[in-house]
C-alpha cells in the first residue's frame, strides 16, 4: 500500500499538509480521502499547506485545482498556503497560474481568509 | 631539429646579456607607463618574467603552447590582471612584453642571430596577444561584477506599514532585474508576513510591452503567494503609452502615486479586519 497524505481536522477546517513529492496514486488517494472526510465531518474549509514542496509543476497545479473544485462542490472553500518564493517564480516563468485556487501566505492567513469568506458569504475570487 | 639549435642559441644569448637586457627592458616599459608604476615594481615583475621566459625557452623551445610556458603564462596572467585593474590600456599592457623585442634588436650580431631573433619575436607576439586576451577578460569580469552590484543596489524592498511592503523600482526593467526584484519581493512577503505589496514605477523611464510583461509576472507571482499587489507611480505619459500600446493590466489595481497605493492597501487591510482564527474553530 502506498503512503497516504494525512488529513487533520481543526474545528470545521480540514488541514492537508503535503510533505513529500506526490505520485499519481497518492493524489488519487488524497482526493478520495479528502472528499470522504469533507462529507463525514461537514467541514466548511480546506487548507492545503505546500510549504514543504520545492517543486510545483503542472501536475501538482492541476491536482490543487481539482481538489479545490471537488471541495467547492461539497460546500468547502479551499485555500493553498505556504507557497515558497522559488515555487511562485517557477510557476510564473512556466506561465502556469493556479486558476480558481485561492492562496495565502501562511496557515494563519489562510484560516483568516476562510473565516472572512464565510462571514461575507462565499465570494470566490 | 633546427628549432632546438636556435632556441639554445636564444637561451645562450638571453642568459649572457641578462643584466643589460632586463635593465633596458625595465627602462623601456617604465617610460611608457608615465610614472603610474615605480621602476622597482616594474623591475620585479619583469625580472620574474624574464627568468621564466628563459627557462621556458630552454625546456620547451619556441612552441608557446608547450607546457613549459605554464609559468610564463601564469606570470603574464597576473601581470595583465593587475594592469587591467589599475586602469592601464591594452596597448600599455601588451607593450610590457613586446618591449623586449626592441631591447634585443641592437644585440643582433650576424645572420644566424637574425633567425633566432625572428623566432623569439614570434614567441613574444604570442605572449603579447595572450596578455591582451587576459586584459580584455579581466575588464569584462570587472564590468559584469559592477553590473551585478548595480542590480543589488537598485532593488530595495521596504516595509511601508504593518503588512505592506513597497518596491521602488528605478531604471529599466529587464528580465535579469525582474528576477532579482521578484525574488526579493516574495522573500520579504514571507519574512514580514505582508499581505500587500506595492510596486512603484515612478523611477522607470519607459514602459513598453516587455517591461509591462515583467511587471505582470512580478504581480502574478506575489498573488500566487497570497498577497495583493498594487502598481503605483504611473506618470501621465506612461499611462498614455500603456493605453496606446494596448497593454492590459487585467484586474491588477494601478494607482497614480505611492500615497494613493498605500491608502488603498490600508483600506483593504481595514476591510479585511484582523486575522481571527478563533471564530472559525
Automatic annotation (TrEMBL), chain A:
SUPFAM superfamilies: SpoIIaa-like (SSF52091)
Residues of the STAS domain: 3-114
Pfam families: STAS
Signal peptide: none
Cited InterPro entries: Bact_StressResp_Reg, STAS_dom, STAS_dom_sf
Gene3D superfamilies per the UniProt record, alphabetical: STAS domain (3.30.750.24)
Membrane-spanning residues: none
Domain of life: Bacteria
PANTHER family: RSBT ANTAGONIST PROTEIN RSBS, RSBT ANTAGONIST PROTEIN RSBS-RELATED
Name of protein: STAS domain-containing protein
The organism of origin for this protein: Actinacidiphila acidipaludis
Automatic annotation (TrEMBL), chain B:
SUPFAM superfamilies named among the record's database cross-references: SpoIIaa-like
CDD domains on file: STAS_RsbR_RsbS_like
Pfam families: RsbRD_N (PF14361), STAS (PF01740)
Keywords from the named record: Phosphoprotein
Domain STAS: 154-265
Classification via PROSITE patterns: STAS
Keyword Cytoplasm: no
Listed name of the protein: STAS domain-containing protein
Native source species: Actinacidiphila acidipaludis
Classification lineage: Bacteria, Bacillati, Actinomycetota, Actinomycetes, Kitasatosporales
Amino acid at each position: 500500500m502506498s503512503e497516504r497524505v494525512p488529513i487533520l481536522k481543526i474545528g470545521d477546517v480540514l488541514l492537508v499538509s503535503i510533505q513529500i513529492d506526490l505520485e499519481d496514486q497518492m493524489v488519487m488517494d488524497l482526493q478520495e480521502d479528502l472528499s470522504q472526510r469533507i462529507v463525514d465531518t461537514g467541514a466548511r474549509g480546506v487548507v492545503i499547506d505546500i510549504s514543504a514542496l520545492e517543486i510545483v509543476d503542472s501536475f501538482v497545479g492541476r491536482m490543487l485545482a481539482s481538489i479545490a473544485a471537488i471541495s467547492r462542490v461539497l460546500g468547502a472553500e479551499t485555500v493553498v498556503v505556504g507557497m515558497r518564493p522559488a515555487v511562485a517564480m517557477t510557476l510564473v516563468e512556466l506561465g502556469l497560474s493556479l486558476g480558481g485556487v485561492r492562496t495565502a501566505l501562511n496557515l494563519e492567513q489562510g484560516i483568516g481568509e476562510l473565516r472572512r469568506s464565510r462571514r461575507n458569504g462565499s465570494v470566490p475570487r | 631539429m633546427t628549432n632546438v639549435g636556435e632556441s639554445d642559441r636564444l637561451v645562450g644569448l638571453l642568459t649572457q646579456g641578462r643584466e643589460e637586457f632586463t635593465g633596458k627592458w625595465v627602462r623601456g616599459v617604465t617610460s611608457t607607463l608615465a610614472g603610474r608604476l615605480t621602476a622597482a615594481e616594474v623591475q620585479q615583475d619583469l625580472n620574474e618574467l624574464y627568468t621564466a621566459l628563459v627557462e621556458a625557452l630552454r625546456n620547451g623551445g619556441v612552441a608557446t603552447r608547450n607546457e613549459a610556458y605554464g609559468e610564463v603564462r601564469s606570470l603574464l596572467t597576473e601581470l595583465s590582471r593587475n594592469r587591467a585593474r589599475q586602469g592601464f590600456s591594452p596597448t600599455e599592457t601588451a607593450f610590457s612584453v613586446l618591449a623586449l623585442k626592441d631591447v634585443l634588436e641592437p644585440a643582433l650580431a650576424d645572420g644566424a642571430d637574425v633567425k633566432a631573433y625572428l623566432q623569439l619575436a614570434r614567441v613574444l607576439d604570442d605572449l603579447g596577444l595572450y596578455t591582451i586576451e587576459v586584459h580584455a577578460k579581466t575588464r569584462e569580469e570587472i564590468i559584469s561584477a559592477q553590473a551585478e552590484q548595480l542590480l543589488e543596489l537598485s532593488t530595495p524592498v521596504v516595509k511601508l506599514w504593518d503588512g505592506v511592503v513597497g518596491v521602488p523600482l528605478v531604471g529599466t526593467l529587464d528580465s535579469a532585474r525582474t528576477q532579482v526584484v521578484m525574488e526579493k519581493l516574495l522573500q520579504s512577503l514571507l519574512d514580514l508576513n505582508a499581505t500587500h505589496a506595492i510596486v512603484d514605477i515612478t523611477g522607470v523611464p519607459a514602459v513598453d510591452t516587455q517591461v509591462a510583461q515583467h511587471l505582470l509576472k512580478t504581480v502574478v507571482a506575489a498573488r500566487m503567494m497570497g498577497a495583493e499587489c498594487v502598481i503605483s507611480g504611473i506618470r501621465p505619459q506612461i499611462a498614455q503609452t500603456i493605453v496606446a500600446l494596448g497593454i492590459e493590466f487585467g484586474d491588477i489595481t494601478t494607482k497614480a502615486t505611492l500615497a494613493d497605493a498605500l491608502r488603498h492597501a490600508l483600506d483593504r487591510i481595514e476591510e479585511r479586519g484582523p486575522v481571527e482564527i478563533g471564530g472559525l474553530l
